Amino acid sequence: MMNKKTAILKFFFLFLCSFTVFAEEDNIVNKTVNEAAAVTVAVEGKAVTGTETEAKKSAAATETEIETAKQAEESQSIIEQTLAAEADAKPSDPGNIAQEKVVKKAKAWIPSAVDYDWIQLTSNEWLKGEIKAMYQDSLEFDSDKLDLLDIDWEDVKILRSYRINSVNIDGYGATHGVLEVTDQVVRIANDYETQTFNRSSLISFAPGGEEESDLWSAKVTLSLDFKQGNTDQFDYTAKVNVKRRASRTRFILDYIGTISKTDGGGDRGLVETINNHRLSANFDYYKTRYFFYNPVFAELFRDPFLNIKLRTQLGTGLGYTLIDDGKTELSFSGGPAVVKTTFISVADGEKVGESTAALVLRTNYDTELTDTLDFIAKYNIQYGNDASGGYTHHVILTLENELTGKLDLDISLIWDRVSKPTLDADDNAPVPDDYRMTVGITYTY
What we know:
- By secondary structure, the protein is an alpha+beta fold.
- The chain folds into three domains: 1-89; 117-210, SH3 type barrels; 214-444, monomeric porin ompg (Porin).
- Helices cover 20% and strands 52% of the residues.
- It is built from one helix and 21 strands.
- It has one helix at residues 2-89, and strands at 117-121, 126-135, 138-143, 147-152, 156-169, 173-181, 185-189, 194-198, 202-207, 216-227, 233-245, 249-263, 270-286, 291-303, 308-324, 328-343, 353-368, 373-383, 391-402, 407-418, 433-444.
- The strands form two sheets. A twelve-stranded antiparallel barrel has the order 10-11-12-13-14-15-16-17-18-19-20-21. Strands 1, 2, 3, 4, 5, 6, 7, 8 and 9 form a nine-stranded antiparallel beta sheet that branches.
- β7 (185-189) and β8 (194-198) form a beta hairpin.
- The chain is globular and about 75 Å long.
């Protein structure tokens, strides 16, 4: 009986232990399953979150690209609309020639030539005013604020003229029309056609068909010297240079005159010691850029102290420009001439007048030393017979220093020589050489 009870107790104890072990294992399994499920959910959550982030980034990038493309399209549309508006605003009028180059990022501003001429310098500065002429690589431009300017042609980038111009083209000849010049080409438009030439073939141009005054320019120099006290003296020198420049022709008129009076002592007052005047003119016709004709040149000269009452010179010849680079000009010209001289007085048996054939040579040199300082040299030679003076020359060396737009300081050295001066009635021979130095103010118109 006791053994049965003991056996039943052992069985019941073993059953309880087995139940406890199975319950604990089940808890462990459930916990493991729950933890695995939690891990799986966490992992899946992270995966979902990462996918959403990448999707958002991709969507944002796509929107940025779309916006950039849209802006580019709008910018291109604006540019095209602007160019189209400008094209519509410029009808096929020869006075408004379309611009040749369009800047990609920002279209360069170019003024319309309506009431004024416009030039753009190589520094990209624009000047408004009136063109006087372009001749021998020098542009004369009149500005309301800056007055008359003499600009090297190589410093002009763009030129637009609203007026009809007479233009001389190398190898083509003279033509006329509304003028536009760029850094490469020259366009000339009139009622019949539009012509295009290389800029390098442009020789000269000047406004034509309107006011004649546009073709003319003038420089006047005046030098005065007064002394009073122990010595009374009066010196006067004047120089005048007048030019008319057309596309193929040039007319130049030069005058220089000097009067000097000095105290004669006692009651004689001022006694004249110098009184000479020279007036010369020449007309040039340019066949090419450098070669020109002198259909006619003339000169009048008077100097009583050289025993010359009046000497006239009339001739014809040829000329050639050796240097013309915008800063320096050197030209030679000359030809045969007829010279007639009338004397104040002569020795007994001599003729009061003398006519002879002569050879005349002329040299002009003009260079720009600085932006405000120019050096000008003129050397004229005449070869005639001894009775008319033999070899004579007239030399002027000038330094011009710019004071303002229209005023210059002029310092000149003048040398006149007559190698064979004619004896007067008292058998006195004038001194062959005369030298003068003058300081004056030049006004340019």
